[in-house]
Amino acid sequence: MMADEVQNQPAPVEGTEGAPREGRGPRGGRGRGPGGDRGGRGRDGQRGRRDDRRNNAEDGGEELIEKLVHINRVSKTVKGGKRFGFAALVVVGDGKGRSGFGHGKAREVPEAISKATAAAKKAMVRVPLKDGRTLHHDGNGHFGAGRVTVRSAPQGTGIIAGGPMRAIFESLGVADVVTKSVGTSNPYNMIRATFEALKDQTSPKSVAARRGKKIADLLGRGGSQTAEADAAAIVE
Questions:
Q1: Is the pTM of this model over 0.70?
Q2: Where in the chain are the domains?
Q3: 3-state secondary structure of 86
Q4: Cβ pair 169, 161 in contact under 8 A
Q5: Strand, helix or coil at 93?
Q6: Domain range 65-199, CATH class
């Protein structure tokens, strides 16, 4: 009799207690949909769309000048031996008065360069240029054992600089400058010292605004007979 009662018992209906629910695992937890994706809000899809917008903004941005200054093989001692990698130093500029440098490490050279380039783009600074080709005045900078001197130069002088300093001025858009480096030849310290000297650069326009005067008043104190014309020609 008990066997007949079991056989005659109706089959469980979907959605009722005792029937396997769709989307539930064997322990009652939330299951995965087709392809192993979780059901619900789809966070991965939203994150992918945000990355696409950021990449499109970078692709449609301004063109930058990238200079690879130095690349070095580094090693890290770990359990069982040494792990080798690469360190890259990159200078980035727009050729119109903005420049920056960055440092990146990775197991492969291209990845280290891309990391350094991304860091340089985030650390770009603006330097005022005279007539868009040279510096407004001389400057000194030092970092660690590196000491540099930068001087403005007349048109046609060219970039008289070597090594890392030349990369900075080429990416900055400076066409005429004279530089001198004293002390260490470490490219990291030389670049940091050069940027320290460039950060102190000021233009007559900014000085006049800070002092509440006209540009012609500042230029006329040096005995310039064409102070008004010189003031009108200054862009920055």
A1: no
A2: 65-199, 204-233
A3: strand
A4: yes
A5: strand
A6: alpha beta
